[in-house]
């Protein structure tokens, strides 16, 4: 039997997705606009080129390069229509993404105008970045759907016969070993998925643990990570005997970081770790004194749910906790994430 060639997901997607899935709206310039205004327009919109449109028709494109050429030629002020590029390669909105990719390869342009097939009017622009971003988004949605559908309908906490069940996972983390950052978060993730906990809950626990674990390695000089689970909440406690924090409110501010240069060079130190922990947990407390170390405790709420009833097709397994004191921004970020991914409710 002939072996079928392996088709990768991205390959499949570039045929499935349309140019309009990637295109973005753009500012346009009228042909009467003067060349002397072009620089300011492109600059204020942070773009490198703008389509020139008159009578609803795409007439050309004026780019930074056209502007520079115009300056080099003496800069006599004339309407854009006299200096724009008219040699255009355009795409139709209903073409497959693969056509855009071929054209990017063939023409080496940064962007293409996108036209409506029926009216011929300009509906937007597509850049290489747009193509990549729309592919990533589609992959992400696909991944999320698969993850949810594969997610085992067994639930350790639900099925364990006991009045109350508690589980604790303990880890010791060495200080300074940046290369090992994330090991605890991924071990914990594995355990939680083995227990049948909802992927969305796991994701939040993993983010919280990863960020606290990195801080433990970078600032705390190493220490302990502990995760306590029961049927309502997952409590992540991260403690060290390091230098401590003198102003907790200050370090909580998005963007605040005392990371040294060598850490920043490795791509860390954006000052978003603690804010991310806060956004992904329902409760966060940081107990710290200079010279006395730091103890961070984050609680992620969840419910075991009442899944597993025979004939119950409805999907209400171990969703993120909805009752209790749930911080508004956390509710929004989780709900937002789910609906951004297009999987809210119908997953
Ligand atoms: N365990 C810790 N011990 C001492 N200082 C810490 C600890 N965790 C965080 N900090 C302080 O809080 C700041 C902000 O942390 P975070 O929001 O994770 O951002 P980043 O790690 O990018 O600096 C750090 O730059 C550091 O000054
Ligand atoms: Mg950090």
Topology overview:
Elements: H1 9-16, H2 19-22, H3 35-44, E1 49-54, E2 57-63, H4 64-72, E3 91-92, H5 97-107, E4 111-115, E5 122-127, H6 128-150, H7 156-159, E6 167-174, H8 183-194, H9 199-218, E7 222-229, E8 233-240, H10 248-251, H11 261-265, H12 273-279, E9 283-289, E10 293-301, H13 328-340
Parallel strand pairs: 3-4
Antiparallel strand pairs: 1-2, 4-5, 6-7, 7-8, 8-10, 9-10
The structure holds adenosine-5'-diphosphate and magnesium ion.
Residues 211, 215-216, 219-220, 240, 242-245, 251, 256-259, 268-274, 294 line the site of adenosine-5'-diphosphate.
The tally of beta strands, per DSSP, is 10
Low-confidence stretches: 306-347
Residues in helix, %: 25-40%
Q: Let me know the CATH homologous superfamily of the largest domain.
A: Histidine kinase-like ATPase, C-terminal domain
The CATH class designation of the largest domain is Alpha Beta
Features:
single chain, 347 residues, alpha+beta, CBS-domain, 2 domains, 5-stranded antiparallel sheet, 3-stranded mixed sheet, 19% strand, disordered C terminus, binds adenosine-5'-diphosphate, binds magnesium ion
State the gist of this model.
The chain has 347 residues and is α+β, with helices and mostly antiparallel strands. The protein has two domains: 9-134, CBS-domain; 156-340, 2-Layer Sandwich (Heat Shock Protein 90), CATH 3.30.565.10. 37% of the residues lie in helices and 19% in strands.
